Structure of Ribosomal protein L19:
Amino acid sequence: MSMLRLQKRLASSVLRCGKKKVWLDPNETNEIANANSRQQIRKLIKDGLIIRKPVTYAQVICQALTRTEKWEMEH
């Protein structure tokens, strides 16, 4: 597998999200590796080879549960 660090960084900048939220198609690594500009990254996003992962709320739910558990322990 080739290094796609630059492409992931550029994609996160174009998508305005964190690097962890960028998904690169593992079947198209060669084509993604050839992209070295923001314009080429935008084209790959339009083609669906690079996708922004959805927001997950697992951590928020977990924090809310612990908050209620602490409250129940106090009262």
